[in-house]
Amino acid sequence: MATKTSGRVVITGAAGRIGRAIAPLLPPDWDVQGTDLTAGDGISALDVSDAGACRVAFAGVDAVVHLAAMPDPAAAWEQLLPVNVIGAYHVAQAAAECGVRRLVLASSLHVISARPDTTQSRANDPPRPGNLYGATKAWAEALGAWIAGTSASTSVVALRIGYFAEARPGAAVPDRERSAWLSPRDAAELVRAAVEADCVKFAVANGISANRYLAADLEETMQQLGYRPADDAWASR
Q1: pTM for the structure as a whole
Q2: What is the pLDDT of residues 87-97, one digit of tens each?
Q3: Is residue 236's pLDDT more than 90?
Q4: Which sequence positions are flagged as catalytic?
Q5: Domains plus CATH for the chain?
Q6: How many of the other CB atoms lie within 10 Å of CB of 85?
Q7: CB of 42 within 8 A of CB of 49?
Q8: CB atoms within 10 A of CB 101
Q9: Three-state SS at 163
Q10: What values do phi and psi take at 235, rounded to 5?
């Protein structure tokens, strides 16, 4: 069962690829405030590594969707530390301190990328990252579990996002990546479901489209969040 938001939704990393793609596709009745490191085009400035700035940005907010990150799986520790580690901590702590109802954290299927490619991942699979980037996303999931377990008011959904691409991947894209494709339309639906899902205290959910071949199982995500993906990487158009 879904619940409507009762106030503002703040999105961090709103100027990133996913943030830009989903912005026009989110529910029109949401009061969305996009934030990023640099302000512009309706986006407010927010450095997520600044704890005080996070508390100011989240005051009186109903939901926070945390997309801000260094997204490169090959990134070095020095690149990942400010946003993926310190920033994720400050966002999670500020959300709890401000009494935010729902914190949505962008995790990644890189959290379990060391598993064999022939294995379909499930949302309850424990972290087994194949790179340092994936380890920082496992940290984000752990932060979410900590907040959900210690906050009386803040619930958390961590989204293990797959291969996000604006265009449907063709045959030139390896099947493993195609089977993990997440379309912009389904990414917006995934965020909507994560924000509005009722009776959730803490959940880890797989975030891919309704592909013919699924790198990650979607049954639990669909049941728990009410997620309804529509796109398929193998569709003809």
Answers
A1: 0.96
A2: 999 999 999 99
A3: no
A4: 133
A5: 8-225 (3.40.50.720)
A6: 17
A7: no
A8: 17
A9: strand
A10: -70, 155
Give me 1's structure tokens: 């069962």
Dihedral pair phi/psi, residue 127, rounded to 5°? -55, 140
High-pLDDT (> 70) share of the chain, %: 97
Give CA torsion, residues 130, 64, 217, 131, to 10 deg: 0
Pull the structure tokens for residue 178. 């195609």
157 Cβ neighbours under 8 A, 6+ residues apart: 102, 103, 104, 105, 144, 194, 197, 200, 202, 203, 204, 205, 225
Report d(CA 64, CA 164) in Å as an integer: 20
Q: Is 25 exposed, middle or buried (0-12, 13-18, 19+ CB in 10 A)?
A: middle
Nearest CA-CA partner of 42 in 50, 31, 53 = 31
Residue 118 has a pLDDT of: 85
CA distance 37 to 19: 13
The answer for 60, left when phi > 0, alpha when psi is -120 to 50, beta otherwise, is left
Q: Which token pair is 163?
A: 């291969």
pLDDT of residue 4 exceeding 90:
no
The one-character DSSP state at 125 is P
DSSP letter string over 111-140?
A: GGTTS-TTSPB-TTPPP--SSHHHHHHHHH
CA-based torsion, 137, 141, 144, 149: positive or negative: negative
State the pLDDT at residue 32.
Answer: 98
